[in-house]
Specification:
The structure is a homodimer of 246-residue chains. Helix content of chain A is 35%, strand content 28%. Chain A is of the alpha+beta class.
Amino acid sequence: MTYCVAMCLEAGLLFASDSRTNAGVDHVATFRKMHRFEVPGERLIVVLAAGNLATTQNVLALLRQRANVDAGQPNLLTVASLYDAACLLGETLREVIQRDGPTLAQANIDAGSSFILGGQIAGESPRLFNIYPQGNFIEAMPETPYFQIGESKYGKPIIDRIVDYQSPVMEAAQCALISFDSTIRSNLSVGPPIDLLCYERDALVPSLVRRIGEDDVYFAQVRKAWADGLRAAFAALPPLSNEDVP
Amino acid sequence: MTYCVAMCLEAGLLFASDSRTNAGVDHVATFRKMHRFEVPGERLIVVLAAGNLATTQNVLALLRQRANVDAGQPNLLTVASLYDAACLLGETLREVIQRDGPTLAQANIDAGSSFILGGQIAGESPRLFNIYPQGNFIEAMPETPYFQIGESKYGKPIIDRIVDYQSPVMEAAQCALISFDSTIRSNLSVGPPIDLLCYERDALVPSLVRRIGEDDVYFAQVRKAWADGLRAAFAALPPLSNEDVP
């Protein structure tokens, strides 16, 4: 399983992804699920991936290969807009599914993958897209500024409570870490290291790129502070009385 | 959708269920999902139901009808143990699925339902069972003292953090309400009123039975106190520095 979250805020963008993959509980491995395509000062495109690992790796390998060798076709380092980048990812996903899907379907294996693609290209505002397994996609809006893919439910309530379009990027990053903490506690198949990327609007380079491992001192502090804070908040709730006995 | 949670603690039992049902988003209704079978001072059996409403209603109608008219067969008011009660519910579920399942399968409708059954019969300790759609079941143990059915993920992290086997029943009830608050905020298909039942070990009658509606003053206080407490806990997190720029 996987958990990825990304937010498109007034102040910039936030991306976070775990790095645990598993095929059953006895084949657990670590793979990066956050991928960057950059021309510093001109564009930053970040892709988060969830689903069938062969599919996501093939989509990203094709996108990378085609970006590295300019064959005159549009690629992630040359497309004019983030919208075109999302189209390109969707097309590449369809290409891989068309090639590998039928064989996997014969073996009852789900080839499906989801992606989040976001970033900024000079001349545009920061944008964020959620690309479905069929290659179509939606874009984040101020009223719904974040997307999750993978094991999203455990970590959703805290984001709904804390983050809105006006949240500062670093605060959104703290909230994402809390969201990961909740998910990791409840689901064995989501695990560190967590890749975190913060982006301030119009910078066209990341403001923070950090891989947070098992023994990360800051993450340990945040987890402890959050656990203590929750216990304090719980202890301060008004007591439940049993006056309403039937 | 539905959200139900029940806990089997050293001090007693806790049951909570929402009451929203829907067939699509345009057919939303309120149905009680908590059902009691009682002989005050001798037994209290509580059943929570999730899944296909026709299936759950039929199972409970058969259990109720057979408990009301003693035909010499074991029923929920006469079985000797909670284990036998769980067996009886499982059998009744299989009976309904056998009768209605094939027709529903032809229409691609899921007849599946899940149940939580718990309580105490004089002479036994309090017990709690999770009954699967196939009619088989598992029992709660001190290491895993709670079960959820329905839309369980949003509300799971807070229970994992707060509740253990030693938690007092009223504290577990507060935590269940917080768990419902998180679920209701994130999923439109789970909604109040919430049915809450607290049971103290060996009492053989409930200590608290309360239906918590939209305008319940206590629930509003708890929701507000929890939201404020979470915001305070979040504000107190150690700040994230961007010293690790790539």
